[in-house]
Design a protein that fits this description.
With 405 residues, the chain is mostly helical. The chain is built from 14 helices and no strands. The protein has one domain (2-190, 209-404): MFS general substrate transporter like domains (Growth Hormone, Chain: A), CATH 1.20.1250.20. The two termini are 33 Å apart. The mean pLDDT is 81.
């Protein structure tokens, strides 16, 4: 019962945070697009968000190992309202030379908050499920990750809606209030010592990772880079400019994509058991799915280049991509916990999500650059190349689960 209450508290806090995170991303993207900022400039607004995610995941895992996961979760939840309220001080009349660095700095704070919360929430599941129950671990991780992405998708819709109905500043204050509720709940309900190690690790141990963790992390860089190359700037701006969709319509599509993606993630254990004969997935599952993703994105790029039913190719193709991507991401999220070493789990997961953030940083920058240079086609082609690299790296993962060999 205690474990179930802790899991519910962690999940609720994570949901609250990701709702505001999705809403904030859409608010910033659409607001500054309306102010006339270019695709490259829009990408730069998120660079510090992703860069500080790399640093936060690396050191956040070590901090959680020393002070416990409750501490790092609470720190993440406390920083997000500061970022949200801080953005209300931005003046739309500021010159870009002033506005862009200001927003980048605020986004850096939000990136730190997001990755502290994410790393803490996902690692906590490792300590709430008995070590010998790998199938249960897969289910719990899938539900947490899938529901989180569904909530983040709802955040995209909320962000577009609040911007249209309340304006930029009032929308940010509303989101800050949601996070304060999650912060107080976590302080009151989570056990103090969850995830805290008896023996304190040294900083030099951050890069002393198992071979499987390093390979999985390298694959994660290109997997999430592939997603964000088209997702962060290219597709939202393309929908708003080429298809002439409103802010609410763009937000709704992005929301629907992420909600569907999250729903597939949550149901991944049910889907995957038909292919793994009821066992938890291993490296072979990750490889097969990444190859499927490479084929899907390559086909989308080719059909788009041929100017064949552009609306159907872009919208329908990315929905199909999202479903398969969700399975791949869910398997990765399970494998990192399965590969993780007991009390060192927070350090392992932190290293892995550092790679995740690095992929998002690279993908975010390329999303703006490729779209600026060659339109959405270049973004789609770049995504296909990154997915091919993901498949090549995944070849080196153990075919089955380590604990079954």
């Amino acid at each position: 019962m205690k474990e179930l209450r802790s899991y519910a508290t962690v999940t609720g806090a994570y949901w609250s945070f990701m709702l505001t995170d999705g809403a904030l991303r859409m608010l910033v993207l659409l607001y500054f697009h309306e102010l006339g900022y270019s695709a490259v400039t829009l990408a730069f607004l998120f660079l510090f968000y992703e860069f500080f995610g790399i640093v936060t995941n690396l050191f956040g895992g070590w901090l959680a190992h020393r002070f416990g996961l409750k501490s790092t979760l609470v720190w993440g939840l406390a920083l997000q309202p500061l970022a949200l309220i801080g953005l209300t001080f931005m003046n739309p009349d500021w010159a870009p030379a002033v506005a862009v660095p200001f927003v980048m700095a605020i986004q850096a704070l939000s990136g730190i908050a997001k990755d502290l919360t994410k790393m803490s929430s996902k690692t906590a599941v490792k300590f709430l499920v008995p070590e010998d129950q790998s199938s249960s671990l897969f289910k719990w991780v899938a539900v947490l990750t899938g529901s989180k992405n569904a909530i983040k998708g709802a955040g995209f819709f909320v962000g577009g809606f609040l911007l249209q109905k309340l304006g930029f500043d009032y929308a940010l204050w509303t989101l800050a209030g949601i996070i304060f509720l999650a912060l107080f709940s976590s302080l009151a309900l989570l056990p103090r010592d969850i995830g805290a190690a008896k023996a304190k690790s040294k900083l030099k141990g951050l890069f002393e990772q198992k071979r499987e963790i390093k390979i999985l992390s390298a694959a994660r860089v290109f997997l999430f880079g592939a997603r964000d190359i088209w997702f962060v700037v290219a597709i939202p701006v393309f929908l708003a400019s080429a298809f002439e969709w409103s802010s609410a319509q763009v937000g709704s599509f992005m929301a629907f994509w992420v909600i569907g993606y999250g729903a597939v993630q949550a149901s991944a254990p049910v889907v995957m058991k038909h292919f793994t004969k009821g066992k938890a997935p291993g490296g072979k599952s990750a490889l097969v799915i990444s190859l499927m993703l490479t084929g899907i994105m390559s086909l989308i790029a080719v059909l788009f280049a041929q100017d064949m039913a552009t609306h159907i190719v872009v919208v329908g193709g990315l929905l199909l991509f999202g479903a398969v991507f969700a399975l791949n991401s869910s398997v990765h999220s399970f494998l990192v916990l399965d590969y993780a070493d007991g009390e060192k789990a927070a350090v392992n997961v932190g290293f892995y999500y550092m790679a995740n953030a690095m992929g998002r940083l690279i993908g975010t920058l390329l999303s703006g650059l490729l779209f600026q240079w060659g339109g959405v086609l270049w973004a789609l082609a770049g995504s296909a190349v990154f997915l091919g690299l993901t498949s090549c790296i995944t070849l080196f993962l153990p075919r089955g689960r380590i604990k079954e060999r």
